[in-house]
Design brief:
about 325 residues, mainly alpha, ABC transporter involved in vitamin B12 uptake, BtuC, globular
């Protein structure tokens, strides 16, 4: 009874606000306004979902990681292999991607979460590197350097075909992102989610009051891994190809940069940061294909120096004034 009251109170405190509808209005509007760019729009939505999974792990639980691509890549390969060898059905493919990534997250978390600080950071990087090398060696299954090809996806619910213009893929990614966001929002509003903030802020005090810190961190790590796996599964299904870059250090670094741009530990920082990063990367790569990485790095440095808390942090300070 007490738990039910606590959950109800937390949900009232996190009652939806009208401003939270803006990302979804923009997402739906983008389908009609940018109808010739829906394939790229799908990539932005996948990046947002990936960043959201990292925000749950890093921003709210305080688990430092530079190897989050391990789960993204696991989900991508799991969905691709499932589509080639088992079934072309997309929804079950996403479930397989989530379960595979969650399993990797839970198993690796048993080791990673025993450490802290720099050791934890290096272990997450090592796990991702090991998985990348395993994918390279298992070329008979993953395609190795050539990538996983020949992925075919059936129409969603037998009705909605994946077309060459990316219309179905875009709406598919938008709906999956909305479900993942809703799940994450409810989770963070619950007593479980509130305890994560307490663990991040003062783990010693949470131990002192008897909170099962280790178990909750492991569960959160596995949930974040599952969401990242779904993002990877969406990538495999919408592009019908999986390359080794899904497990690369660069992929892990990119998603951290996205969160820094938007604002870590804010849930909507993933939306803003991922969208800005993807659009900036696309435009800079077109205008300066040789040195676009330099401009991304410069923007990151300026963000860290003058925009602490990311774009959402700037907005908060402006509202305060």
């Amino acid at each position: 009874m007490t738990d039910a009251i606590a959950i109800a109170t937390a949900l009232r405190q996190h009652r939806p606000r009208w401003i939270e509808a803006i990302p979804w209005i923009l997402g739906i509007g983008g389908y009609f306004v940018f109808s010739d760019q829906l394939a790229f729009g799908s990539q932005i939505l996948i990046a947002i979902l990936f960043a959201l999974s990292l925000d749950l792990v890093l921003g709210f639980a305080g688990i430092v990681t530079l190897g989050h691509a391990a789960f993204y890549g696991t989900g991508a390969y799991a969905a691709g292999i499932y589509a080639i060898h088992v079934s072309h059905e997309p929804l079950s493919g996403l479930l397989v991607a989530a379960v595979a990534a969650a399993a990797v997250g839970a198993i690796s978390g048993l080791v990673i979460l025993r450490t802290h600080g720099l050791t934890q950071l290096m272990l997450t990087l090592a796990i991702a590197t090991l998985l990348a090398e395993a994918a390279n060696k298992a070329s008979f299954l993953t395609g190795g350097n050539d990538g996983l090809q020949g992925i075919e996806i059936d129409p969603i619910a037998g009705l909605f075909h994946f077309d060459m213009f990316g219309r179905t893929g875009y709406l598919y990614c938008l709906i999956v992102l909305f479900i993942a966001w809703l799940f994450t929002r409810v989770l963070l509003a619950s007593p479980f989610g509130q305890s994560l903030v307490g663990i991040r802020e003062n783990v010693t005090r949470m131990h002192a009051i008897g909170a099962p810190v280790g178990a909750r961190l492991l569960i959160t790590y596995a949930i974040g891994a599952a969401i990242a796996g779904v993002a990877g599964g969406l990538l495999a299904q919408t592009t019908q190809f999986v390359g080794q870059s899904v497990l690369s250090f660069e992929r892990s670094g990119e998603v951290v940069i996205m969160l820094v741009f938007g604002g870590i530990g804010r849930i909507y920082g993933a939306f803003i940061g991922a969208a800005i990063y993807m659009i900036a990367q696309d435009q800079l790569a077109k205008s300066d294909p040789e040195f676009w990485n330099f401009w991304i790095g410069l923007i990151l440095v300026l963000s860290v120096l003058f925009a602490r808390g990311g774009i959402l942090g700037i907005i908060d300070r402006l509202r305060g004034r």
